[in-house]
Amino acid sequence: MDDRSATSERVASFGPFRLFPAQRLLLEGETPVRVGARALEILNVLVERAGELVSKKELMARVWPNIVVDESNLKVQVAGLRRVLGDGQPGRRYLASVPGQGYRFVAPVELSEPQKVSAQPGVGVAHGHNLPASQTRTLGRAATINALLDQLSRRRFITIVGAGGIGKTTVALAVAETLVSAYEHGVRFVDLSPLSGPHFVPSALASAVGLMIHSENVVPGLVAFLRDKQMLVVFDSCEHVIEAAASLAEQIFEGAEGVHILATSREPLHAKGERVHRLSPLELPPKSSELTASEALAFPSVQLFVERAAANLDGFELNDANAPAVADICRKLEGMPLAIELAATRVDAFGVRQLSVLLDDRIRLLKYGTRTALPRHRTLAAAFDWSYEFLPEDERALLRRFSVFSGTFTLDSASAVAADAKTDVVEGVASLVAKSLVSADVGGAVVQYRLLDTTRTYAMQKLTESGEVEDYVRRHAEHHRDLFERAGAEWEARPTAEWLEVYGRRIDDVRSALKWAFSPSGSASLGVALTVASIPLWMQLSLMDECREYAERALASPMAEPNRSERDEMKLLAALATAVTNVRGPLPETNLVWTKALRLAERLDESEYQLRAIWGLWVYRVSLGDCGGALALAERFCALADKIGDAAARQIGDRLTGITLHYVGDHATARRHLERALDQNVAPVPRLRFALAVNHDLAARSTLSMVLWMQGFPDQAVCGAKSVLDGARVTNHALTLCTALAYSASPIALYVGDLAAAERSVTTLLEHSAKHALTVWNALGRCLKGILLLARGDTAGLTLLRAALDLLREVRFGLRYAVYLGALAQGMAAAGQTADARLAIDEALERCERSEERWCLPELLRIKGEILRLEETADAIEAAEDHFKLAVDWARRQGALSWELRAATSLAELWHRRGKTTEASQLLSSVYDRFTEGFETADLMAARTLIHEFRTAPLQSA
């Protein structure tokens, strides 16, 4: 084993830190330090070769193996590492740079044997939070942080208030970091600064907690999801969306008692339950020309200045000679952390004393020029002006141009938007990061840059003053159009998580670009192109209502119409119809939009979108419960797939046909289509084709399990339903899981009489549909819950079932409505509500016939027969017998052996009571004997008991 590998397996200690290379862990004392993977690897290399010069080339080869990256990436990572280590503070001298060559680790390092570190807060719990990687150490805020920790546990809702640049976010992140392990469901950080409008606030939180909302009003679904959670939510930078943030925070505070809220804002939210904590500037040293270095370093403002100065000027140290000047700078900047950081980055250019003189001139000038500005606003503006004016012109230009980005951006995006023939973007970015004007998040595979909210506001003002703003907001929009056109192609090939990691964070820039594009000074045609390109992003983030909003805007814009192609219109219509279906249900509007999209696709000979539109129309018809119309569309889909030779589409066509035939009542043919769909070995279905379709394989298997139960294979049906449910859980896809629960697992458990399994399945369906605000699916879950309660003899099921059916009727969702209505009628009859039961079963039968959804017709006829029996008149008994016979006949025609058994059981009981026991026994035995499995399920056990009763009963004459 060589020295390097030996070192990597041992613990390296330096200063207050311990580095565990094998565990990829850095501790300061006993506290884990969150540092990006690449920065940690740089530290590993330098510590392995402590005291040696490690060249830039060697470091880049080690940290970015087999990847060509620019040297600026290394500079940014080292700068971030220095900040995390506090490099430059007295007793903290770790990294020395050798200009043009590389870096050297200069602190003493002690090596010890490997240790196993027990789980620490913040270690191994990345799934419990989404906090950004630490960019800096928190200085001078220990008392504030401790006070907030104490208040938050008791008050639940605290807003940290203070001027821009005073360190609100830094303090909030420090509090959140400390509490990561204190909440069962973790900590979620919601950055509101990039949002272009208040209506995006709920969606930002939904995205942060991983919640997919498929309705227009996001907030009720959010509150329902959070209601039973133990979680800390951090709302950062609320000031520009303060009313929306206050409203959402208030509703969460009142509706989710286990959720604590920490907000940052320049002003209080004035929300119910809020406690305000005003953040003070960093403590300042007294004015004294005899202040020593050790005395000055007792003050956090000086500590911050020294740390930042040392990070930018190798070898900078505070001494007795320069301590008064440093203290003077901190006092002039009134302890404002961001202003101090900006000033400290210019020590390399001017030295401490000259810096103090220059800064004093700038603040004096600003005070006379803007008497109405608040003192701390003047201080920060002075720091920005002063930093900006001493930048080289190319760096000024970059800073101005970067202000068009709402969120984070990569080096590639920076180059695409801000570059010109005179500007070296790569070096410029590295320099702006070093000067604290651009923030770099080095925690991921690709460095993400951003401007702090205060910096962005200042830079946008400068961009506007320069007269360049229109040019660069256009370039920003064009870049994101091009970016998402590429992203659309990649969506088919890249794993979902990887695709979202790259493109999901761009949502705020898409929003701001579209806001400009559809403004009077924008470019509506560019807005249309960007809207079309962004469709996969909205689909993948489940931002259905937002997708609907922008698609409608793009379609309605009179400025865009002359340049909007029919192909773009077709794509927008398909996106609009998909979104409306999921947000509002099967409205007539959906049918109209899909029909228009289909006509355009046919005119353009776009087979892909023809298939998608036919599929959308099929979903619409099925949702209405119009099985006849749905079957015609399924057949049309298959014909088109055959015509163009698309095997993957033909597989979907078999699924659509099989599902529809099952509901029509042709179970044998349905099974053939479903099994053929499952047996075909074809390429995966492109995501973009049916972006919101449930997993095609699982949907086919879900329906197949129901067909198997119908055909008299209950054990296979139970096994199939379990397999479908297990597969649906793995997909982590809301609609897929709801489909498996509502259309397979729950009803089959009820049919076989496994009420405990039905309870588990229905409960999961209700919880999951509530979590994702899936209104229709939640109503289906309540229907099944009502049926479960009735099966247990609990008449509360009637109220629940009736209310759920009213909701389904309201949203025009008709699929399975008849069978649920039949269950309601049966429950009413059992409760003595015979008249209401007659009305309900007659409506169910009428719906069944009108929609051609005849799969449940045998059961509905049987239920009506049972209701008629209760009247006990001769005519009613005769009518009941006729209905039972008709039920048996329909079940035989459909090949629905399980329905036939139920109908035969009812008819046999009636015959037995009328003295026709021999006929009853023969009828029921003939059906029972055709079963080959499922003998421990409820219907078969009941039939077996009756057959035994018939065979042992004394002979009676008819």
Report on this structure.
The chain is an alpha/beta fold and 958 residues long. Among the domains are: 3-112, Orthogonal Bundle (Arc Repressor Mutant, subunit A); 141-278, 3-Layer(aba) Sandwich (Rossmann fold), CATH 3.40.50.300; 293-389, no CATH class; 565-692, Alpha Horseshoe (Serine Threonine Protein Phosphatase 5, Tetratricopeptide repeat), CATH 1.25.40; 694-781, no CATH class. A hairpin with a 3-residue loop joins strand 6 and strand 7 (102-105). Helix 23 packs across helix 25 (566-584) and helix 37 (817-830) packs antiparallel against helix 38. Residues 1-7, 118-127, 365-374 and 687-693 have low confidence and may be disordered.
List keywords for this structure.
single chain; 958 residues; alpha/beta; Arc Repressor Mutant, subunit A; Rossmann fold; five-stranded antiparallel beta sheet; disordered N terminus
